[in-house]
């Protein structure tokens, strides 16, 4: 891995960690497009670039979610009863998501990611919270919901918060509990999704040196180290900045990144 690639990944990890801490979002929606840009610039095999970007993004969530969950748990905000009900479905869905991605070519996967990011950007721009209109479903319903959240998150390399938080608030879970519980769900999503990406990528021909399945290990290491260090700084800065206004700016950035991934899909 050359020095320019290391420098690019260091800067990306630092920026993603800071944004995650500042805005309370997962880093996958930023990581995937920028990693796609970096790997494209370094002439990685084009048929694997989007798969590797998504897989590596999921791998980093495994590490960054731990510090986030500890902070939320210390405040007593995590609804562990909900985590226990959603986790089984999430583990299965997060394994299935990368399997679906492995059946798709790079263009189709880039398009799926662009659609998800566009939806997330609209959600952030409007800042609308679904009205609490029902209670949490029973065990079968929670298993199904977890399966849906996990499959989508595993497919696009995100922590699932843009799906799980609205679902929980719709089911009368207070917003701060929903956000904290979503952070806790990030770990099983990332764990199952990472193992799935390793398994389904193990026999893919043409993957570059340093890959474990679809995961690019040097990037996983560098991004995880820097993002874990800058996330607390972002969280601290959030108290001094107008986060609601920043989220609207960030939503516009997401639209631009979705546009880039659409360009990759049709290029």
Written description of the protein model:
It is a multi-pass membrane protein. Belongs to the 4-toluene sulfonate uptake permease (TSUP) (TC 2.A.102) family. It comes from Noviherbaspirillum denitrificans. It is found in: Cell membrane; Membrane. One of its GO terms (cellular component) is plasma membrane. The chain is an all-alpha fold. It has one domain (3-266). It is 77% helix and 1% strand. It contains 10 helices and 2 strands; from the N terminus they run H-H-H-H-H-H-H-H-E-E-H-H. The chain has helices at 3-23, 28-41, 49-74, 80-103, 106-126, 139-156, 161-170, 175-201, 217-237, 243-266; strands at residues 211-212, 215-216. The chain has a two-stranded antiparallel ribbon. It is globular, with a radius of gyration of 17 Å. It starts with a helix and ends with a helix. The mean pLDDT is 88.
